[in-house]
């Protein structure tokens, strides 16, 4: 029989048999994520700069879609398909990420069905779609704006489900108010602000395209 | 103390103190919903026919958006904000609807957080947005397609969360396989098929508008 190790999550009565504590420190986890993200963003920024036609905003959007797409596929994809990550003894980085993040929201360790669903949809649909958005912007596809709009709306819907379910269940899943604000609120805030801005921009671009189409039709008549 | 009445839902160990059985029959519930929906659809069809410019497909879409918008706001809106519908003694129609539907998915009576979240978002955001879509099509707004696309995607995301959470929790919420297929599958199927068709149509229309815009820009050069 395995020795029972106490987990650091709230609610305290959550049962996690076989739990193995985090072996990486918070700063090590953040450093790896920060450095890898910076590498991805720098690479996309440099490569996109080769095309003289690309505006700075398009280049920033390509960086965002590469960053968010890889986060969805690798980090969230690992969670969605690893129900026993909290038992990992090897110090595997992605398991450590979710052991640490669960301090801000224990529903991850507890395998809440709503969380797994949202993370699964995000990893499987929005992840690859985000990488497609990098390609669509790079090559100036006509579906570029509607694709970016669709992914952003999916991200916003997922975040809404994430926060509303927690609210309805009593919002008592963080180990302390530090973890509540740093992880539960802080780590998710970008996925509210940026998709909102992108949605508004795409909505306006799409409306403008129909106005031009309308003017063209009027001229043809 | 209230007399304890046994509920007809599965799982059998679900606790619903104060439960009052359905007083309307299944056919009465369906008849009221069917007749009211037919009234709404007929009214929108007739009114939209007054404008000679509207295509048949636009008129059908206006009927759909009026029907789905009112369903979201009235039927699902009632559920989202009535945690104790299963205790209703007055035979109030909307309470009866959800008492009956819970035979296909007891998570409604059990007030599952995922269900309440999806129904709440649907009622509060997609309901009014659907009625706005009727207006947008009627008046030929430039945001007509992107709005229809956004609502359809929201409906599809909500339906995905609805089915995936149930699957992850063991898919054991129907009172019998009749209720499983008639209510859980049957009643939701339209909200997969129709939003999918509308999304594809809007996606194509939006891409076409950007192709025209691209051609126009090329000509200007």
Automatic annotation (TrEMBL), chains A, B:
Residue stretches spanning the membrane: 28-48, 60-81, 113-138, 145-168, 180-200
GO biological process terms held by the UniProt record: sterol biosynthetic process
Coiled coil: none
Keywords (A to Z) from UniProt: Isomerase, Lipid biosynthesis, Lipid metabolism, Membrane, Steroid biosynthesis, Steroid metabolism, Sterol biosynthesis, Sterol metabolism, Transmembrane, Transmembrane helix
Keyword Membrane set for record: yes
Top-level taxon in the UniProt lineage: Eukaryota
Membrane topology label: Multi-pass membrane protein
Name of the protein this chain belongs to: EXPERA domain-containing protein
């Amino acid at each position: 029989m395995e020795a029972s190790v106490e987990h650091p999550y709230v609610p305290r009565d959550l049962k996690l048999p076989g739990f193995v504590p985090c072996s990486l420190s918070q700063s090590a986890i953040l450093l790896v994520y920060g450095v890898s993200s910076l590498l991805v963003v720098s690479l996309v920024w440099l490569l996109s700069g080769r095309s003289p036609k690309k505006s700075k905003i398009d280049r920033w959007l390509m960086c965002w879609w590469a960053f968010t797409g890889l986060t969805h596929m690798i980090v969230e994809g690992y969670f969605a398909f690893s129900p026993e990550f909290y038992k990992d003894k090897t110090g595997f980085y992605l398991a450590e990420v979710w052991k640490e993040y669960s301090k801000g929201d224990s529903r991850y360790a507890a395998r809440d069905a709503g969380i797994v669903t949202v993370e699964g949809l995000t990893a499987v649909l929005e992840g690859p779609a985000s990488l497609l958005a990098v390609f669509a912007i790079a090559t100036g596809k006509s579906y570029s704006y509607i694709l970016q709009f669709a992914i952003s709306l999916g991200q916003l819907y997922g975040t809404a489900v994430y926060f509303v379910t927690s609210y309805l269940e009593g919002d008592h899943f963080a180990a302390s108010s530090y973890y509540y604000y740093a992880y539960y609120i802080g780590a998710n805030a970008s996925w509210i602000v940026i998709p909102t801005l992108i949605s508004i921009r795409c909505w306006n671009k799409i409306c403008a395209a129909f106005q031009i189409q309308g003017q063209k039709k009027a001229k043809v008549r």
